[in-house]
C-alpha cells in the first residue's frame, strides 16, 4: 500500500511547495493537490512547468486534483463542465490519475430523485470529458446532513447507475462513520469501484453532528478503522494507495513538517495491520 498526503491536513499552516518538499523528505509516494486554493496560490509565483519538473525529479507523484466542488443540482451546468474540463487538462499536464468531484452542500430541500438524476447526468458528462485523457472521476460522498450525497450506499448506487469504467468513489473513513453508512452495503460492494481511500479518525460525537474539524490522527479516535480496512480488503480494494486527510484546527497550529510526519506514522500504524506498507 502506497502512502498519499491530502493537503487539507496542513490547510492553514503550509503551502504546496512546502508540502511537496516535506512529503518527499518523509517518504510519501503521492499527494492530493487542492485545486481550489493551494494550486492557484502556487501558480502565483511558479509555473505549471515548475510543478511538472518537481514531480519528474522527485519520488513523490500527484495522485489527484481535489476537487471540483458542488457539481450536482446546479443551474449553471455549462460552467461546471467547463471547470471540470480545465481540471482534467491541468491534471493531464501533471500526470494525475483522478479528479475528485464533491456533491452540493445546501440547506435547501432537494428530492432524492432530483439529486440522483443530476449526479448521474453530470458524472456521465465528466466521464466523457476525462476518458480521452486517461483520467478517472472519483465521487466523494460527504458525511454531513446538508450534503446531497452523504452516505456510502447512496454514492455507490449513483456510481452503479453511471456505469462507466472511469467513474468510481472516494471512500473517506470519516464520512462513512459520520452519517452512519451501512456496513452491509459496503460488504456487498465491488472494491474496484473505490478509487481513493481517505484515512482519518474522529472524536466520538453522535451521527449527524460530526464535522471535518472533529477529525483526529488515525487510530486515536472512535472510528472502527480495523473493521473498515478489513472489510475493504475483503471486497477487493487493492488500489494500492491510502491518503491521509485531516482538518484538525489544533494541527494547523503545529509545525507543518511535524504534522506531515505524525500523519504518516499514525497512518502506517493502522494500515500496516491489514495491508503491506512500503515506507521509504
Written account of the structure:
By secondary structure, this protein is an alpha/beta fold. The chain has eleven helices and ten strands. It has helices at residues 16-25, 38-43, 48-57, 77-94, 112-130, 152-162, 173-178, 183-187, 225-234, 249-252, 256-271, and strands at 2-6, 30-34, 61-69, 98-102, 136-140, 167-172, 194-199, 201-202, 215-216, 241-244. An eight-stranded parallel barrel has the order 1-2-3-4-5-6-7-10, surrounded by five helices. A two-stranded antiparallel sheet has the order 8-9. Helix 1 (16-25) packs across helix 11 and helix 4 packs across helix 5. The longest helix has 19 residues, at 112-130. It is globular, with a radius of gyration of 18 Å. The model has no long low-confidence stretch (mean pLDDT 97).
**What's the end-to-end separation, in Å?**
12 Å
The side-by-side strand order for the widest beta sheet comes to 1-2-3-4-5-6-7-10
Query: Can you write the helix and strand succession as a string?
Result: EHEHHEHEHEHEHHEEEHEHH
Which of globular, elongated, flat, extended, rod-shaped describes the shape? globular
Beta content comes to 15-25%
Structural class: alpha/beta
* Sheet having the most strands: 8 strands, parallel, barrel
Using DSSP, what is the number of strands? 10
Amino acid at each position: 500500500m502506497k502512502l498519499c498526503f491530502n493537503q487539507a491536513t496542513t490547510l492553514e499552516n503550509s503551502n504546496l511547495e512546502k508540502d511537496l518538499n516535506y512529503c518527499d523528505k518523509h517518504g510519501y509516494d503521492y499527494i492530493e493537490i487542492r485545486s481550489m486554493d493551494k494550486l492557484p496560490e502556487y501558480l502565483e509565483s511558479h509555473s505549471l512547468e515548475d510543478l511538472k519538473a518537481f514531480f519528474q525529479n522527485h519520488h513523490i507523484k500527484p495522485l489527484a486534483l481535489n476537487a471540483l466542488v458542488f457539481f450536482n443540482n446546479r443551474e449553471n451546468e455549462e460552467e461546471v463542465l467547463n471547470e471540470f474540463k480545465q481540471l482534467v487538462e491541468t491534471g493531464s499536464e501533471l500526470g494525475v490519475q483522478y479528479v475528485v468531484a464533491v456533491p452540493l452542500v445546501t440547506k435547501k430541500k432537494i428530492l432524492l430523485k432530483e439529486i440522483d438524476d443530476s449526479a448521474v447526468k453530470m458524472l456521465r458528462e465528466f466521464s466523457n470529458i476525462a476518458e480521452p485523457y486517461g483520467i478517472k472521476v472519483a465521487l466523494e460522498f460527504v458525511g454531513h446532513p446538508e450534503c446531497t450525497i452523504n452516505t456510502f450506499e447512496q454514492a455507490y448506487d449513483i456510481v452503479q447507475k453511471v456505469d462507466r469504467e472511469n467513474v468510481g468513489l472516494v471512500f473517506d473513513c470519516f464520512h462513512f462513520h459520520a452519517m452512519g453508512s451501512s456496513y452491509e452495503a459496503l460488504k456487498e460492494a465491488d472494491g474496484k469501484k473505490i478509487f481513493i481511500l481517505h484515512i482519518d479518525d474522529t472524536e466520538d460525537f453522535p451521527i449527524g453532528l460530526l464535522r471535518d474539524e472533529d477529525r483526529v490522527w488515525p487510530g486515536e479516535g472512535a472510528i472502527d478503522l480495523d473493521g473498515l480496512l478489513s472489510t475493504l480488503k475483503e471486497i477487493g480494494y487493492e488500489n494500492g494507495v491510502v491518503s491521509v486527510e485531516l482538518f484538525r484546527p489544533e494541527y494547523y497550529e503545529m509545525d507543518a513538517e511535524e504534522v506531515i510526519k505524525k500523519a504518516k506514522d499514525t497512518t502506517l500504524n493502522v494500515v500496516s495491520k491489514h495491508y503491506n506498507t512500503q515506507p521509504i
